[in-house]
Amino acid sequence: MRSDRMDDGIPDAEAIIERGRRYRDELDEYGEPEQKETVAELFTLLGRAYALPVLHLFSLNEGPLRFSDLEDRLDVSPTTLSKRLSELTDAGLLTRHSYDEIPPRVEYEPTDAANGLAPVFIHLYEWASVYDLDGDGD
Questions:
Q1: Strand order in the sheet with 94-99
Q2: How many whole angstroms from its chain centre is CA 128?
Q3: Where are the domains of the chain?
Q4: Alpha helices of the chain — where are they, by DSSP H?
Q5: Which of 4, 11, 15, 43 would bridge 126 by S-S if both were Cys, CB 3.0 to 4.6 A apart?
Q6: Residue 29 CB-half CA count within 13 A
Q7: CATH code for 13-128?
């Protein structure tokens, strides 16, 4: 099996681009209209403010996270975070556990679907290590 990394451990840009081309071709060849609609809905959800950073934190963390943990680590307003967590829960990416305590405690955990997105974050990291997004050439 061919590695997508060069001898120095840096991701091979051509291999990453080729994987992207194969993925695009598979969508064109096998993607049914409702599958494409589902992907569009996913991109819409993930494109909302703080959706990806929330899911990324769960991919890095073992176990549940409390609302306050997420709020502190993301520096996001409570209103925005609450809305995003609700949407991610409704989409089946997170589960919400509420505990009958004083003060109330609410924890969130990623579902298998959210855990399945972990490779996406790895690929984004690899992509970012290959391409210079700040335009300074370094």
A1: 65-66, 105-110, 94-99
A2: 15
A3: 13-128
A4: 13-30, 33-46, 51-60, 67-74, 78-90, 112-115, 118-130
A5: 11
A6: 6
A7: 1.10.10.10
